[in-house]
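DATA SHEET
Item: assembly model
Revision: 1
Owner: S.N.
Input lines:
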Amino acid sequence: MKERTPLIIGGTLVGVLLLVALLNGLGREVSNLDPSTPEGTVQGYLQALLADDRDSADSFLVADTEDPCLHDEVDWVVDDARIALGAVDVDGPRATVEVVTTEVSEGALGGSRYDSSFDLVLVDGDWRIEAADWPYGCGLSRERES
Amino acid sequence: MIWLAIIVGIVLFIVSSRQKTSAAGPNALRRLFIHLLMFGLVMAAASSLADLIALLIGNETFDRTQDLASALATLTVTVPVSLGIGRTVLRKLRDESSGERESIGWNLYLGAVLFVSLAWTAGSGTAVGIGLMAGTEIPELAIAAIPVWGLLYAAHRWLRSTFGDSTQQSLETIAGSTLGLGFAWVGGALTIAWAVDRILLSDVVTIAQAGRDVPVGMVPLAVGALIWWQYWLRNGVDLNRSTLWQVLVIMVGSVLALASALVSLTWALFRVVEWFIGDPLATFEAQFESLPALLGVGLVGGVVWWYHRILLTSGERVTGTVREVATYVMAGLALAAVVVAVTILIIAVLVALFGTTDVSSLSDRDVVLGAVVALAVALPTWWLYWSPIRTVSVEQAHSVARRGYLIAIFGVGGVVAIGALIALLFELFQAGIDGSYTAATFAGLREPIAILGAVGLVAWYHWTIWRLERPAGEEAAESGPPGPSILLVGFTRHTAHDLREITGGRVIEASFGDAPLVDGDVGAIEALIRGDGQAHVIVLAEGSQVRVLHADASTD
């Protein structure tokens, strides 16, 4: 067998996979969720963060959040992240939204993926974020519960 | 600064004394020191210049004053000193009779600067390329590093082509090849992972995104492929007589590649099997979220391993000894995978027999599945390498590689077994001192017992090989020669062993050059020898036939 056969087959494999992936659509579209839902609230908050619009991001938080990290710990993610929706659990006036954050520049090779949960409460008919896991917050509500 | 001044003073002293004493002949140690110092100065200067440019084009305010002062101070010292030393070195290089061009120090310096500057240029280029492709922020340092390190690389390429010793470039070539392979490896894995992720997990809902969702792995793939093509395909692949070449092909291209492929593909296969007959996670996305990365790493590792396996087995590039060593190294790696799989299997059996507490985050059924999948991958891989060398000729059986392999297995196995035994006794003593043997005690015993079992199995199997292949004299000395003396020609070790057992005689093995060894019918051979009634016989394998000849006792 010729020495370069594995290289040709490997290159072809990468090309075919890329082609099929691109035929599926060039990358993933960002879904527009209903802003009146818990997941829509989280989406609004995260999109405001990615746009570096802190004032708008703060409008999705409860007024007296005890989680100081919600404001301070997200610099790293602003320029370099894709955030996917995980499970959503609504229990009366409280809800939990899980998200998976992946650093764009490192792709899907593990290590740069973070599973985080957001705790939300219903305030005057609108969902507001009360606490979140790292890197968006300190996860205070779960620490309190435990 | 005082220390720096002292160092500079020492350097200038050495340089001036070297000029005065050049007629006394080459001084390799002093040259080495000068080039080592030159290397440090050039690295510090380039690094500081890149930092300075990054600070000037960026808007970083944190510690800006301190960083600026540091970069300027380093540049102020390193640039003039390195230019001064460089001028002296250049003068020597122009004098062909000085021996500078052929010196180890100069060629090591060239290789090291070329490698580091190439690594910086490639890394920075990749960061800039990814930023441009994904539309994300580009680090200022990467932008600044490309011209600085790129120019340094280009300048030293010119120096090498003008003043370098072409016979001393294998280090640079192999290091560059490894760098290119590394970039291409990571880039290929990232690209495959991206594509599989988009194909397999197309239902994932993206709610926010910074930058564009594009296969950024193509950037390091392209950068790495370019470097690898230049360093390896154009030059390095033909340096097959070099030890560095053999180390790269065996340790990186074979061992590392196969290990990454085995681990990744085993885990990926387990996730798939678990989905169908195990205890999978709640959703398809959760179950298979790691699959793209595993397939990326596994497939690229497989391709890298396959390419280097052809290099090692084609028979054109490596000697028989190198191929033999490579085969034993790979067999050892695959054997380690088998040991891990058997260990997990024994743990699973212990759990099934004696009840369970938490083995891991996996369920009991998944632990069994994991062990079976790991065995299904590891065993064929081990057999691929072990089957051709399981039965070997007399000469090969006593080769350094084979004896070393067997001794290494006993040595490593012994160390692992001692560690497991200590862990086992620790659990027992701890429970005994506390006076409470609980489920937790048993849970702590499972792993040491399993490791001891797996290592014991491997040691026993290889001990039988070791015994079979001991030089005939050793065995005869131990047991004495009560039966006939037999010269067995063209038969396998197993045949010789069985014949030794059945006749109680002394069996000396021999082979016809590289002719394949035959598994003989020991009963038939023994009958022929007994029927012949001679004390000294020669037994020949002639195709499927066996021929027995008399041997004169005086020749024994």
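QC remark: Confidence is low (pLDDT under 50) at residues 1-6, 20-25 of chain B.
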